[in-house]
């Protein structure tokens, strides 16, 4: 486990055959701060518009 925690993958074997492989989790992306996702997320113009059925149920249409 110390090797895995240290960043090295470890193969566990039984009778000379590899069984599972233990590896540290991969950090895919590290984002911090405001605007780090700018240009990557698209919100449609109709995002805040209520759906027809809900609007009618509340007497909005």
Description:
This protein has helices at residues 2-5, 52-57, and strands at residues 10-14, 17-22. It is an alpha+beta fold and 61 residues long. A two-stranded antiparallel ribbon has the order 1-2. A hairpin with a 2-residue loop joins strand 1 (10-14) and strand 2 (17-22). The longest helix has 6 residues, at 52-57. The relative contact order is 0.12.
Tell how many strands the DSSP assignment holds: 2
Strand content: 15-25%
Show unreliable segments: none
Number of helical stretches of at least 4 residues:
2
- What would you call the structural class? alpha+beta
Major beta sheet, strand line-up: 1-2
Please state the average pLDDT score. Answer: 80
Radius of gyration: 25 Å
User: Sheet with the most strands?
Assistant: 2 strands, antiparallel
Proportion in helices: 10-25%
Gist of the model:
16% of the residues lie in helices and 18% in strands. The protein has 2 helices and 2 strands, in the order αββα.
Give the SSE layout.
Blueprint: H1 2-5, E1 10-14, E2 17-22, H2 52-57
Antiparallel strand pairs: 1-2
